[in-house]
What we know:
The structure is a homodimer. Chain A is mostly helical. The first copy, chain A, folds into two domains: about 5-145, Ribonuclease III domain (Ribonuclease iii, N-terminal Endonuclease Domain, Chain A), CATH 1.10.1520; about 155-225, Double Stranded RNA Binding Domain, CATH 3.30.160.20. In chain A, about 60% of the residues lie in helices and about 10% in strands. The first copy, chain A, contains twelve helices and three strands. Chain A has helices spanning about 5-10, 20-25, 35-55, 65-75, 75-85, 95-100, 105-125, 125-145, 145-150, 155-165, 205-220, 220-225, and strands spanning about 170-180, 185-190, 195-205. A three-stranded antiparallel sheet of chain A has the order 1-2-3. In chain A, a hairpin with a 6-residue loop joins β1 and β2. Chain A is elongated and about 60 Å long. Chain A starts with a helix and ends with a helix. The interface between A and B is medium-sized, with 24 and 24 residues.
Amino acid sequence: MLPLEELEKRIGYTFKNKKYLKRAVTHRSFSSEHNERLEFLGDSVLGCVIGYALFQKEDHFNEGSLSRVRANLVKMQTLAEIGEKIGVWEFLCVGEGEMHQGGNRRPSTMSDAVEAIFGAIFIDGGFEQAQTVIIRLYEPMLSQLTAATLGKDAKTMLQEVLQSKHLGLPSYEVVDVKGAAHEQEFVVEAVISKLGVVTTGVGRSRRQAEQEAAQKALTTEAIKNL
Amino acid sequence: MLPLEELEKRIGYTFKNKKYLKRAVTHRSFSSEHNERLEFLGDSVLGCVIGYALFQKEDHFNEGSLSRVRANLVKMQTLAEIGEKIGVWEFLCVGEGEMHQGGNRRPSTMSDAVEAIFGAIFIDGGFEQAQTVIIRLYEPMLSQLTAATLGKDAKTMLQEVLQSKHLGLPSYEVVDVKGAAHEQEFVVEAVISKLGVVTTGVGRSRRQAEQEAAQKALTTEAIKNL
């Protein structure tokens, strides 16, 4: 296990009281002084910080969209990705049995530890410190909400973006079908004429190819800069 | 409708920017500048404030209990009670049709407005100001968690309290049964011998009478001060 100072560097926060961080990375299989209550607290803090960030940034979102996106950003998988990125598993104290089964790198365990770390920062440094760390770690996800985060498919999302700017609807056209009857591959072009954007998607069904084309359109500069 | 200064007095917070409060009390039936996004934000803030309060106060609660109690404290009914207490309905801007149907005093509408007010304070004054107001309004509920808030029946709760202090189990005894066969009324005594506490409950069934006796025991000084 790496020293906790290294973890402090990776999250960009130095604890006044190191025992909070120690506890945040302690799994219940390791000690009765484990991180589950801190995880509860961190979950509360995270919901507030992400809720406020979305409220500020996405001023065109209604309450339903805000709730849906927040839920996607605070769910286990997203937290586990953050845990993987900061390598939280390298610091986790888990019981020997758990460790042998690779339990320190289990997504749910990493997710719990990341939440517990947020809770620990909140206790140690207050709301604004926790907010700073959370926003920094979530920055890539907040600055570009993906179709998955938004809980929408790419075609719906593209349509909404274009409509909000009065740019009409994209058109989709099958430009090629390859392969034998049961192994067909569809090639679809998405055209957003008012922006001069044309993207191509490939898939085993027309629908799949359209989704890919829409996803590619969403990542073009012309649309990202709308 | 009463002036918003009166609402500020009742919640104990004066807004720097009154437009936030105005918006927090505006229902969607009244104007497109309604409170739904603020309600989302307030919900986020409330979860964090109540989560932290429970984390601090109930240091014997595990994560599951903390989550359950938080859910009970932030649910619509609880918020509507707070709305009723501060008379939030006297300030709500709802559409005419709604108003005629008493829509300003509907529990869900009051609950939404109370959350929106918390969100408005957060934007106007920051986390600590919102925390102060929320804790003040929730104080009665936080200082004495009831069986309902805890999502447990009174007997279970009494048993848990006594066991945590190694005071053994309470005993319940039917001391009287009154009335004719189909209208019986049971009188039950709960005895906690180590504390010298005896309480009496009455009910249409033995179980109901036991619950009442347990609930009364929970409110005795001897047990509240454990």
